[in-house]
Amino acid sequence: MSLEHYFNDYPLQQVPAGTQILHQGDECQNYFLLVSGSVKIFARSANGREVVLYHVAPGKICVLTTTCLLGDKRFPAEAIAESELSVRIMPKSRFDELMENSAEFRHQVFENFGQRIGSLIETIEKLALETLEQRLAKYLLLQPCNPVGVTHQDIASEIGSAREVVSRHLKRFEAQGFVKLDRGSIELLDRTALHHLI
Description:
Elements: E1 13-15, E2 20-22, E3 30-36, E4 39-44, E5 50-56, H1 63-71, E6 78-81, E7 85-91, H2 92-101, H3 103-129, H4 132-142, H5 152-159, H6 163-175, E8 179-182, E9 185-188, H7 191-197
Antiparallel strand pairs: 1-7, 2-6, 3-7, 4-5, 4-6, 8-9
């Protein structure tokens, strides 16, 4: 039995794009299953710099929300709807009841939790072990469109850097003929050269 089965009793709810779903320090009162859309989970430093921890995709759960529900902790990051969402919401009381009484539900929760923890650890390893040049090249190569329609600030948040540093590296890439920079977009000119940076 899939995790989705346990959410069938809860109606689909629509959440507009840009909605702040959770703030740092909020109590976690619900367990969410994302049916469509994307949620960005990010940390914000005291000086306002953002670092994206992960994105929640359809059919997935939020590992930090699960952690909060299991340990009665407050949410340690920020969660925002990147697009319009369709979501099913299970109250914490029902989550606790199922965790206590359903071995199958517990198995599904911990299996999904383990997968998401692995992804989060990968993100931490990248921030700790890869150079910014490697992270930037990898980010650009993973984008589905060319040119890439994204701001330098968005890239900085995704790869864990500051906008000014990202802009400097992109100008260096442009001088080397790897990319062409325009306002709000980056055209990849030499994908092979970018691959060699990784």
